[in-house]
Specification:
- The protein is of the alpha/beta class.
- The protein has twelve helices and 16 strands.
- The chain has an eight-stranded parallel β-sheet with strand order 7-6-5-4-3-2-1-8.
- β9 and β10 (about 300-305) form a beta hairpin.
- α5 packs across α6 (about 140-150) and α10 runs parallel beside α12 (about 275-280).
- The mean pLDDT is about 95.
- Bound molecules: beta-D-galactopyranose.
- Beta-D-galactopyranose binds near residues 51, 99 and 161.
């Protein structure tokens, strides 16, 4: 029985901040923080260990072995701890012969590894693409792991990660994956947010229920802190993190926190736990957001529009540029005509207030790297 929810996954992943420096204490204390800070109740449920958790060689029976220096109590005990907190446990492997950080990967071990994961109590598998045999198509490798996961006796969310390579959009849904990384690796700076997000504009038809386009783990709250100097590069302002979170949410990306949740500022908590933004991300129909470019500044200013299951829309007016820009959305671009007396009443998801009903459109001047995120309800005007 498939008990995996059809909306984007939410949780925390160790990679952005900790990379190779992971151990069971980090995982346990992060799970504790998810619960005590209210993140679990806000919807974050998966606690995921990324690369570098195993020994460099498989065991005598060909099994993956958790590194006893990092995980002395073993993976089953860690999973039990995480489950005891009302959370779910995720792990990482790769479709190639080695993982990206050069640990054993699952090529030709798919069924064996899925059984190992199930015996540990794993609920989520991130599945990477490094060291992929050139002669075997990616869709075959993801279908293989899907077959293994679907038959291991435990529901395991299958999170594919091939960075948008090999036209993944065209085949990923057929593999059974629940999400697919559509972008390369994120870095903790605004340039990276802009580059990753813009690379997915126009590709919103490919995301949807049970197979979400994954724009990569969130950098919200990292503030340049990471064991990985390539990711740490720069940091963002709180405003930039809000824009990043708004964009990932409206696009329907999984929301996997990447900062150290044990040391979050109030601003970071407020961003990550904004219920109105999360509700847009978790909307039951899971439609992707399309882009309405600003007519006089189309490269930098735009409104992303996501049709919602209640008949309304989420609208994210964003300015990627370095100078303030006008952003205006004409409602006829989203299907509403004032000649037929239809307009939108707008609720601001960051100030948490209704700002009124509008007939033909809405315009504002948006600060650099900022956005406004609305929930719009169709009204008679
Ligand atoms: C990359 C992947 C990252 C992280 C890393 C681990 O390929 O995109 O998210 O998992 O491998 O080595």
């Amino acid at each position: 029985m498939n008990t995996i929810k059809h909306t984007p996954a939410m949780g925390w992943n160790s990679w952005n901040t900790f990379s190779e420096k992971i151990d069971e204490e980090l995982l346990r204390s992060s799970a504790d923080a998810i619960v005590s800070l209210g993140l679990r109740d806000a919807g974050y449920e998966y606690v995921v260990i990324d690369d570098c958790w195993s020994l460099k060689r498989r065991g005598s029976k060909g099994d993956l072995v958790a590194d006893p220096a990092k995980f002395p109590s073993g993976m089953k005990a860690l999973a039990d701890y995480i489950h005891g907190k009302g959370l779910k446990f995720g792990i990482y492997s790769c479709a190639g012969t080695r993982t990206c950080a050069d640990y054993p990967a699952s090529f030709e071990h798919e069924f064996q590894d899925a059984e190992t994961f199930a015996s540990w109590g794993v609920d989520y598998l991130k599945y990477d693409y490094c060291f992929k045999p050139a002669g075997i198509p990616g869709n075959v490798l993801y279908r293989r792991m899907n077959a293994a996961l679907r038959n291991c006796g435990r529901p395991i969310l299958f999170s594919a990660c091939n960075w948008g390579a090999d036209n993944v959009y065209e085949w990923i849904r057929t593999t059974g994956a629940h999400s697919f990384r559509s972008t390369g690796d994120i870095q903790d700076n605004w340039t990276s947010v802009e580059k990753l997000f813009k690379s997915q504009i126009g590709k919103e038809p490919y995301t949807g229920a049970y197979c979400h386009s994954d724009l990569d783990m969130l950098i919200v709250g990292m503030k340049g802190r990471s064991e990985n100097s390539w990711i740490a590069l720069g940091g963002c302002t709180d405003e930039e993190y809000r824009t990043h979170f708004s964009l990932w949410a409206i696009y329907g990306s999984p929301l996997m926190i990447g900062c150290d949740i044990r040391n979050m500022s109030d601003a970071t908590k407020e961003t990550l736990m904004n219920k109105d933004v999360i509700a847009i991300n978790q909307d039951a129909e899971c439609r992707g957001a399309y882009c309405v470019p600003q007519w006089n500044n189309p490269e930098q200013a735009m409104t992303m529009v996501k049709p919602l299951s209640d008949g309304g829309y989420a609208l994210c007016m964003v300015n990627f540029g370095d100078a303030p820009s006008q952003v205006s959305v004409q409602f006829w671009d989203i299907g509403l005509t004032s000649s037929q007396h239809k307009g939108l009443s707008l609720y601001d998801c960051w100030s948490h207030e209704d700002i009124g009903a509008f007939a033909d459109g809405y315009a504002d001047t948006i600060a650099p790297h900022a956005c406004r995120l609305f929930r719009g309800k169709v009204v008679d005007i």
